[in-house]
Amino acid sequence: MANHSDKRFPKAMFEPAQVDEKLAEKIEKPSLNFWQDAFLRVRKNKAAIISFIILMLLVIVTFVGPYINGYDSETQNAAHSNLPPRIDAVADVSWLPFDGTWENRSGEKLYPYEERGIEESYWFGTDKFGRDLFTRLWEGVQISLLIAVLATAIDMIIGVSYGAISGYFGGRVDNIMQRIIEILTGIPNLVIVILLILVLEPGILSITLALAITGWTTMARVVRGQVLKLKNQEFALASKTLGATDFRIIFKHLMPNMVGVIIINTMFTIPNAIFFEAFLSFIGLGLQPPDASLGTLIEDGFKVMLLYPSQLIIPSIVISILMITFNLMADGLRDAFDPKMRD
Amino acid sequence: MGKYVLQRIFYMALTLFIVISLTFFLMQLIPGSPFSTAAKLSDSQLAIMNAKYGLDQPLPVQYAMYMGNVLQGDLGVSFQFSNTPVTELIAGRIGPSLSLGLQAMIFGTIFGILLGIIAALRQNTWLDYGSTFVAVLGKSIPSFVFAAMLQYIIGVQLGWLPVAFWRGFEYSILPTIALSIFPISIAARFMRTEMIDVLGSDYITLAKAKGASGYEIAFKHAMRNALIPVVTVLGPLTVSLITGSLVVERVFAIPGLGEQFVTSINVLDYSVIMGTTILFASLFIFTVFVVDILYSIIDPRIRLSGGNN
């Protein structure tokens, strides 16, 4: 009991604190807007960030790729047909498949470059017409991305307008519009897409159109749900009282509050469109030669899989990376924008 | 409940009617006639052929004829496969597709559910991350890419299983795996979320407090309730199986409906395309219907709109 007057704890330390009522409500950190808030949460999702970086690199390569090795995608050269991939810099690294050899089914190694006395190297090899596959691949990815982005954009415009009108005006309008959607979603997309492309002849535009026509219903439903939730809130009422038109309320006041869900939906639509384009090419409804897309490249590669596997494997890897990164990013964004996930 | 079912049946019929009409009219818009690819026919021969198939009639008459025939289960005759009735053609092809689809569905959902349960029970361990990884891959990689890779690596390179064709059970293993990767990933993701949700509820805590073993809690108490919402994904899964079967059957050269459909698209065999489309659509519409009804039956907590309990 000798510690009654411990010098380490002077009496002054036990004075009651001064409570300033003004400071009680003070917010310590700067307040964040919607985007900053979302970014903070996306940043924690490593998979989404890594996916984003990989995707950006892939997009850069896609647009630069066709110009860096000096070949173009359409020049045919029968003497250089079906060459294996060869990259001079890594040709000696044994575990990389870029040494310019094929292996036939009995395990023998073939050296087509040496046999035919070809000096140049084709990084990803050539196809049966001797076209450079490196250039063709990236031009194909460009077309696939173009179709996907275009279809998604049309999708978004139709879906958002339809959903907003249906939800905002409600009543009989909503009822009729929802019944139409119900019937449309009852029909499998695949059926409509295939029939439309049969009618319109395969091409970039018809594939885009077919994808857009079938894809917008999900967006419309999501947007309608949001509008129903938002349109009765005070800020919408205030705007209405001040004489804003319906159009202005929908697009100026309700829309900014739905950006999150719209972005999430779009991010899921893009990989879906990439998949459908490739799928259509694979069943013979894709782009017509000489145009190439990821789907037609995979289709061509599949036909010669046993002889020249790299022609199938390389585009397959690229489409898989595209799909995985898009899906992971969409997952990450969904978690970040979803207010229920706030921590 | 009865009112709801009736309402759904009405919508089902309406959707089907629209699908059939849509198919019919879109087919009419396709350039070229079924005989344009055939050997050169004289005008009189063409007229005979057109008359035989009713193609010389005005469009509304053709439409009415087709509708009537479809309702009686007659889907017309194939133009390319030497006048075989479409129904016969489909009947001969449906076997492999059906067994492949069922195998993939059963294997996919069971394996996916197990994967989801394991992930939920071992949250944030390598088991959880592993199953999430599988789910992401399964959702992302297109089925035909996956099928071609399986075929190349396991069939050609390793030689463990037959590369293609349809001659027995071992021939069906690779296609089944290729087709079930999507159901696996969807079921696993869904089951994991539901399981985590259920594991946090009070009755699980009670079961724990009463000393039930982990195994008992997981499979006897939690799984049953977590399974209910998983029923809802059966609808989308059927679609994925139909879509997948088109390409997987092509990759593995399986003589099924999907392969048939792709062939008939390439040779513009109208009646087969229409028949198969109608079949696929009915299958989809019917599955969604059954799933909705099933869902309301097995989960008494759900109140249906328009239903009076």
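The mean pLDDT of chain A is 81.
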